[in-house]
Design a protein that fits this description.
Distance between the termini: 43 Å
Bound molecules: nicotinamide-adenine-dinucleotide
Helix content: 25-40%
CATH superfamily of the largest domain: NAD(P)-binding Rossmann-like Domain
Oligomer: single chain
Shape: globular
Radius of gyration: 19 Å
Strand content: 15-25%
CATH topology of the largest domain: Rossmann fold
Order of helices and strands: EHEEHEHHHEHEEHEEEHEEHEHH
CATH architecture of the largest domain: 3-Layer(aba) Sandwich
CATH class of the largest domain: Alpha Beta
Number of domains: 2
Structural class: alpha/beta
Length: about 325
């Protein structure tokens, strides 16, 4: 196979689908790779070379990079929101096979740049016990006490990417994403994250007339949420830069889950009866992205206002829910 400009793994998923679109818009040749059958991809771009491969297998990882590539974005992972990662720790850790084999294949294919999508879940849990969280700086990942399962895999794979750079000269770049949301994200089925779940619940309430909403925990846990366009911009910017340390790619607009619901209600024009499920998975108490480093290095940070990004996301999820309920 001839080489391409860009390879995206996990291209059938949320962020990967947007990244493929952005790379095609730049006029680059793109190979999009995912384990899911094509009909399940969140977005399928006809101008890309779309391959169904399991890159946890070394031979498939090599096929993904056949002929070489200028940039590789390794986004493939078995992942989901808190409901998924708290109950599927072994599955999350098996993504280490993807990280390992993609790095080996990239080293051998002579790839120019290799991006690895890490996560805010690598941060030390002890620094996230209060809702009035002090935002997480990159150095707060150590001493290591990440989110069990998923976070350990991410931290290990970051570290491996670093050593591939130091020992093998593979130009790896590591972004630590903080909660990404937007259209074409997972919005049902158990892997969805809070913004999509809240939008789905609000849209369902609007469409069915049952004006109630279940919230996981007491709603006072805090988070920041990054709009997908900012995620793509930060990812490409970091990949093409000379900055080699792990970097936060996240919004620093901190909200409680209750405030997230307020925003979604305002967009939808409803007020719902809130029922708090205190037994549901809730993750850490508070988490925010400290953007000092990205601002210093790049003079930029993800800055789409939550109210703006959520409006676009809500409209998209509303349409999905309406179609499912036969009310489109
Ligand atoms: P996603 O689940 O929508 O996409 C991941 C894709 O990887 C899926 O389509 C899945 O089928 C694919 N995949 C899984 N195993 C594979 C394999 N063996 N071979 C090929 N493809 C495989 O997730 P996303 O939200 O688009 O996340 C992309 C990356 O960013 C992941 O690595 C994730 O851990 C990381 N991340 C995401 C967020 C977020 O908020 N979405 C936050 C932090 C980190």
């Amino acid at each position: 196979m001839a080489g391409v400009d860009v390879v995206v793994t996990g291209a059938g998923g949320f962020i990967g689908g947007h990244l493929v679109r952005a790379m095609l818009a730049e006029g680059r040749t793109v190979r999009a790779v995912d384990i899911k059958p094509l009909e399940e991809w969140h977005q399928l771009h006809a101008d890309a070379e779309n391959l169904v491969l399991d890159v946890s297998l070394l031979e498939d990882a090599r096929r993904a990079l056949d002929g070489g590539a200028d940039e590789v974005y390794n986004l493939a992972a078995d992942m989901g929101g808190m409901g998924f990662i708290e109950n599927n720790k072994a599955a999350c850790m098996l993504s280490v096979l993807i990280s390992t084999h993609m790095l080996l294949a990239a080293r051998d294919a002579g790839v120019n740049r290799f991006f690895y999508s890490s996560s805010a879940c690598v941060y030390n849990a002890e620094k996230q016990t209060s809702p009035n969280v002090v935002a997480l700086k990159e150095e707060d990942a150590y001493p290591a006490m990440p989110e069990d399962g998923y976070g350990w895999e991410k931290l290990f794979s970051e570290r491996m990417a670093r050593h591939f750079r130091e020992d093998f000269g593979l130009a790896t770049r590591i972004g630590r994403y903080h909660n990404v949301y937007g259209p074409y994200g997972t919005w049902e089925g158990g892997r969805e994250k809070a913004p999509a779940a809240i939008c789905r619940k609000v849209a369902t309430a609007v469409l069915t007339g049952n004006h109630e909403i279940e919230i996981w925990g007491d709603g006072e846990q805090t988070r920041s949420f990054m709009y997908i366009d900012d995620c793509i911009k930060g990812t490409v910017m970091l990949t093409r830069s000379d900055f080699v340390e792990p970097l936060n790619i996240g919004s620093s607009e901190l909200v409680t889950i209750n405030q997230l619901v307020d925003i979604a209600e305002e967009i939808a024009g409803v007020k719902l009866q809130r029922n708090y499920n205190l037994d549901a998975p809730k993750g850490v108490r508070g988490r925010n992205s400290d953007n000092t480093l990205i601002l210093k290095e790049f003079g930029w940070e993800p800055s789409t206002r939550l109210a703006d990004g959520l409006e676009v996301t809500y409209r998209w999820i509303y349409d999905q829910v309406a179609a499912k309920l036969g009310k489109a």
